[in-house]
Structures are given as C-alpha cells and as structure tokens.
Amino acid sequence: MTQRKHWQLWLDEYVAFVHDHGHRPSGSVDDKTEQALHRWMAGQRNHFNSGRLSDERLCHLRKAGFDPAICLDEVAATRCAVDRDPACYAQRNRARWYKNFEEYTRFVRENSCQPKHSAEDEKERSIASWVSNQRSRYRAKRLDTTQEEMLFAAGVDLTSPPRPRNKPQTLRTDNADDAWERNLKACRIIMERGGRIPSHRSENPVERALSGWLRNQRVKGFLGHLPKTRMLQLQKLVTTKALMK
Known about the structure:
Distance between the termini: 82 Å
Shape: elongated
Mean pLDDT: 78
Helix content: 55-70%
Radius of gyration: 29 Å
Number of helices: 11
Largest sheet: none
Structural class: mainly alpha
Order of helices and strands: HHHHHHHHHHH
C-alpha cells in the first residue's frame, strides 16, 4: 500500500468516526482505535507545525473539518491568559469557530436539511443564527480563505441575500381616523374580557401593539397634540390615573 493510500485510509477513518460519534477522537479513553486516531491527528499537527504537511493534505483535512493549525483542547484553551496574550484570544475564537462548524456539519448529516430560524428546537435556531452570521462576515470580508473554503465545501451558500428581519406586528394605519377608532374599540374589548388595559407584557402581539398605542396617546396628551374629544373618549375607557401612570 502506498503512503498516499495509507494516509487517505486514516482520513476516511477519522471522518467515519466523527460521523458515527458526533465528536473528535480523544486520547483519554480506553478504546484503542480512538486512541490511534487521536495520535494520528496529533501527528498531522506536528507535520503542519514543522512544515512537512503538503498543501493537498492540508486542504483535505480542512474540508473534513479538521484544521491542524488549531488545537481544540478546551482545557488548555481555558488556561490561556487571554488578557495577557491577544494571540491566545484569537486562537480561542478560531477554536470556537471550528467547534460551531462541526455542530453545523453534524446537524446537516443527521437531519439531511439546513437549520431553520423558525425551528422549535433552540439548538437548531442557534446553528441557523451562526450560519447567518457567517454570511454577514463573508459580505464584510471578515472570513479568512480557509473558513470560506470549508463553508462552501459544506454546502453553505455565502452569497445568498441577508435574511429579512422579522418586523414587529403593528396596528393598521390605512386611515388615521378609522384606525384610531378601531384601536379604541379593540382596547375596550380587551378591557371587557380581561378587566385590565392592554399590557406590553402580554403574549398576544396585538395586545402588546395596543399597549404601545395607548402609550403614544398618553405622550400626545402631555404634549397637547391630542384633540380633547379623543382625550375624553380615552378617559371614558379608563381612568386618567390608569392611563397616565
């Protein structure tokens, strides 16, 4: 067996291990196979640090989610004196990036789909936010070449347009007079049902919007911008003390 095929077999074993176990091989376990893979990873780091790792192999390793330039030993990273060593801070950031990248690739492998911002699972939403952040960093030219190549190889479309932000639900304002009357009527309905004025802490987005609307009426009343007829209507709805608190 040639040296090239032998190295490729080790890489295939590494990829299969991460796929099956969801984490990188560790040297602190009893399993001999996992220990051997951990030693192989350490050997790749040594080859990289000594300049004996070819560009081709480095590219294959990074596409597999393993960058020999980064040590992901969380214990060692925690011991870094970040305040005294900016280089260590940068290393921890890169290590965190590779850890997030592994979580993304693991999610895609296990679910055969991209993470969604609207998912019920908090972990999936977190991964989706990380992917969106990578697109923002790509547009701002803050991703290095290695990170760009790894993301593209993993199937992340960094050139897609930014995700539109969810706009808070607001009240209709198609006609100022009609909208004001409609909002007042909606406040009256909420008071009749719940015995209280609309609250900004409510789970109902419409009630939260009405609470903001009432607050705006209060400000207009203080500034003298609210017609007296409307102020009287509001005072009939709730007491002046409740409205102005």
